[in-house]
Amino acid sequence: MAQERVMLEITGMTCGHCVAAVKKSLCAVPGVGEVEVTLSPPRARVSYDPSKATPETLTKATAEEGYPSSAVAGR
Ligand SMILES: [Cu+2]
């Protein structure tokens, strides 16, 4: 199964706890594979199964956790 990748720019992260919370919210989305979150720059690199997840479901998940995000680039 083909995996898509997207880079998300996250707002509101201030420490390692936030990084962990964002990572957890993304990992909980069905179809998500690898998740790598960094505080500086505040970004998440996510691989996902496009038949189950979309960049919109990913940004929605982080926003619901309290960290609004937007997709900045594919691959
Ligand atoms: Cu924090």
Question: Any overview of this molecule?
Answer:
The protein is an alpha+beta fold. The chain has one domain: Alpha-Beta Plaits. It contains 2 helices and 4 strands, in the order βαββαβ. It has helices at residues 16-27, 55-64, and strands spanning 4-10, 32-38, 43-48, 69-74. A 4-stranded antiparallel β-sheet has the order 2-3-1-4. The longest helix has 12 residues, at 16-27. The mean pLDDT is 95.
What's the topology here?
Layout lengths: L3 E7 L5 H12 L4 E7 L4 E6 L6 H10 L4 E6 L1
Antiparallel strand pairs: 1-3, 1-4, 2-3
The structure holds copper (II) ion (CU).
Copper (II) ion binds next to helix 1.
Brief write-up:
Helix content is 29%, strand content 35%. It is of the alpha+beta class and 75 residues long.
State the main characteristics.
binds copper (II) ion; four-stranded antiparallel β-sheet; 29% helix; Alpha-Beta Plaits; 4 strands; single chain; alpha+beta
CATH architecture: 2-Layer Sandwich
Beta content comes to: 25-35%
Radius of gyration: 11 Å
Bound molecules: copper (II) ion
Mean pLDDT across the residues is 95
Helix content: 25-40%
Task: List the uncertain runs.
Answer: none
Strand order of the largest sheet: 2-3-1-4
Estimate nothing, just give the exact number of structural domains: 1
